[in-house]
Structure formats: C-alpha cells, structure tokens
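does this look right to u?? zinc ion version
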Amino acid sequence: MSLHVRTLVNDTIVNVAQLLKETVGSTRIVEAHLDQMPLDETLRAEDLEATIRLTRVEAGILAEGRLTAGVQLECVRCLEFFRTTIAGDFEADFRPSVDVRTGIPLHVPEHQDLFVIDNNHELNLDELFRQVAIVSLPMQPICRDDCPGIEQVDDDETGGADERLAVLHELLEHEP
Ligand SMILES: [Zn+2]
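got this back:
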C-alpha cells in the first residue's frame, strides 16, 4: 500500500468527502506549508510547516500532528524584535455538518474544542493552526538567555532621582 501524502501550499482546506465515506481507521497524511498566517492584529507566523494525520473516527475526523513556524517577537528585556521558532503538537476533532452520503444536516454540539467540516465536506485547518501557534508562543519571550535588557534603564532611574532631588532642593530654598 503506498502512502498517499497530500501537500497544501498556502492553503489550509482539505476535501474529506472520500475519507468520510471510508471505514473507521482510514487515514490520510497532509503536509502543509504557509508562507505566512496572521495570529492576531500584530503578530503573524511565517514559514509555517505542518504534518497532519487525518483519521476517520466514528464521530468524524481526528486530526493529529505537529507544526513549526517562525515568529517575530518583542523581547521582554530589551524590547527589540527578534525571530524565533515555535513548535506545537495537536490533536483535534472535526465533525461533519452534513451526512456525506445523504446530505442530511447533522447536529454538531457547540464546544470550543470541536471544529466543523462544512457543507462541501471541506475541512479547514486554518483555525486549528492559529490556535496551536498561539498556545506555542513563549510567555516571556527573551531574544537570548544573557540579554542584558535596556541599557538606559539605570540612567532613567538616576534621572528620576535627580529630578526628585531638584524638587527637594527647590523646596529647601523656599524654606523660611
Ligand atoms: Zn533582548
């Protein structure tokens, strides 16, 4: 049996009509590459690579895999932007919204962890990729372990102290 791998380039949609007609346990392998994908208003993933195994399960399709992507993040110490690579594993349930054989609409329970396969039997990996990339972001991004932070921090503090001293001097001068 040859392993059929489907490749998606700058696309996240897989038609799973055939897979939905197959028996439980049937699989497809999908490899996806996206030049870029927005994660929120300011952040985007670049060169996203993902390998996904789609398995026909009783309730629909199980998508399991791993993605890696480059992101530009702001270092919490020095506030400079730097590029880093994120990686995340995922396992997600996709449920069909219509019966693939009869076309009869199916009830998909509302649950944040459930993804819906649309009326055309198209499974969109976009939202899954976005969610996995976002949870894979470092909480405290640091450009390098020994990042010294902002050099001017000390100067600012000194400046602040000088200012306070100046105010104090002024008050003392006006002392009767
Ligand atoms: Zn830094």
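The beta strands are 5-9, 13-15, 27-38, 44-57, 60-74, 81-96, 114-117, 122-124. idk if thats expected tbh
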